[in-house]
Input
Amino acid sequence: MNVSAVTPDKSLFRRLLSPNGSSGLASFNRNDQLIYCSLTTLAGSTLLLARWLTPSANGFGTHEQLGLPPCFFFKLTGIPCPSCGLTTSFAHSARLHFYQAFITQPFGVIAFCLTVVGIPLLLYLLRRRITWANFIRAKGVDYLIYFLIATYLLSWLYKIAAVKWLAS
Output
């Protein structure tokens, strides 16, 4: 039996953290650098913008300070859109008003925390030269995405109930 043909299988976590995507995984390249740098810049800019905005007292509409129009979905249907209140929640979170941010739009607090945590995580992945493809395919990422989608939809239902309750 050929001993070199029998190699122990490394865990996905060890393969993910191995530099240059060794163990048969994709190798780190310029596109990975561009993705990490772009996402880090986007996350930092989002946090700075959230701090600059003044949260709307209505619980939604803060995006209008950016020159964006009022929510067409809300005007058309009378119910908030799925993203209603996210900008306001981010603006509250950037001021560390987490209770106000949560009652405005619960998913906004989660998105804010992921944005804050994302910056050092992206820099770590860049430093370790872990490819974007390997990170996205890591075990548990799909469950995280399912959890975020479910939380987003539940937060939308909460926002609909909150706006309807306040209107009555």
Residues 141-167 form the longest helix (27 residues). The radius of gyration is 21 Å. The mean pLDDT is 86. Residues 82 and 156 are 5 Å apart (CA to CA).
